[in-house]
Design goal:
two-stranded antiparallel sheet, 26% helix, five-stranded antiparallel sheet, binds iron/sulfur cluster, 15% strand
Length: 306
């Protein structure tokens, strides 16, 4: 597998606003994200811990899904007590949503936040305010943690998992709209280390389960509105940090410890997200703003393409 990423960032930026045929590959099937984020990068339990330990608890955000009860349930009696058919614990009603669940516990991912940034991705000439990974340098369109210990496996191996599963890659979607075959996905052999991380081993490793649906009241509604609070995000982040891979159990000591750390986070990322959000409403989209908004707050630099 070889990719040509210069000037692209198609997997780091939500470029649907630039597309004549916006793709929504994350919203197919019976479980659909309640948020509107594009290409969320799902982190493993250990990666969640590493980000929080590094002071980046404020860079993380959860994803929960609405479960299509009608499409998936076995026809049967109402045994859930809330007017719904029993679906074997595959969903739980929270804030009026049938939230996808594992064994009756609300399921979720933890990914990286995507504030609006002034970027010119996928080879376009003009910059636009587009939802962009918190760690992407808007000027170079390079990842600020590339090669770092924190660099997520999902990013390091992209698009190997797609090639393994024979699913269209983001590189090919970019080629289809802004180039030609082979412009971005230069060589499409499946890498030896491509790992689908599907099945039971994903639970507690990358797909997490919250033990107390009642504790999510109000939080799910705010996630669906795209407005989770810092406390909402910390609740999910800490539960993921306290997960036990292969099970739905949560280590409550680890949960409490990581919840405090996530709430205490005050990194350049969190500060920049607030600043970007304010500027998107008032400033022209100039990628050079990244210097004042991110670099001057301590963001790691990027090497450029030369
Ligand atoms: S979509 Fe493909 S070519 Fe574009 S930045 Fe991502 S990996 Fe690179
Ligand atoms: S962590 Fe880096 S490579 Fe991954 S989505 Fe964010 S900017 Fe892109």
């Amino acid at each position: 597998m070889r990719v040509n990423c210069e000037g692209c960032a198609g997997c780091c930026v939500d470029w649907r606003a630039l597309s004549a045929t916006p793709d929504d590959h994350e919203r197919v099937g019976p479980d659909r994200p309640l948020d509107d984020v594009y290409n969320l990068v799902p982190l493993t339990r250990d990666e969640v811990r590493a980000f929080v330990d590094a002071g980046y608890g404020d860079a993380l955000t959860p994803r929960v899904w609405a479960h299509d009860v009608d499409g998936e349930t076995d026809a049967g009696s109402d045994e859930t007590g809330d007017g719904r058919e029993d679906d074997g614990g595959r969903s739980v009603r929270v804030d009026g949503f049938d939230v996808a669940a594992v064994a009756g516990r609300p399921a979720f991912f933890v990914g990286l936040r995507k504030p609006p940034k002034p970027v010119a991705p996928v080879g376009v000439d003009d910059a636009h305010w587009l939802p962009t990974c918190a760690f992407l340098d808007p000027e170079s369109l390079q990842c600020r943690i590339h090669g770092d210990d924190l660099y997520p496996d999902e990013c390091a191996t992209y698009p190997g998992r797609n090639l393994l599963l024979d699913v269209e890659t983001g590189c090919e979607r970019v080629e289809a709209e802004f180039g030609a075959p082979g412009d971005r996905l230069v060589e499409d052999a499946v890498p030896d280390d491509a790992d689908p991380l599907l099945g039971p081993q994903a639970v507690g490793g990358k797909v997490f389960a919250h033990p107390d649906p009642a504790a999510l009241s109000g939080r799910v509604e705010r996630i669906a509105a795209g407005e989770p609070t810092a406390a909402d995000r910390a609740e999910f982040v800490a539960t993921a940090a306290g997960a036990s891979p292969g099970t739905v159990r949560r280590n409550d000591d680890a949960y409490r410890e990581y919840r405090e750390r996530a709430l205490d986070a005050d990194s350049w990322v969190g500060q920049a997200i607030d600043d970007w959000t304010d500027r998107a409403d008032r400033d022209p989209p100039d990628p050079g703003l990244g210097e004042a908004v991110e670099d001057d707050r301590g963001a790691p630099g990027t090497p450029g393409w030369d």
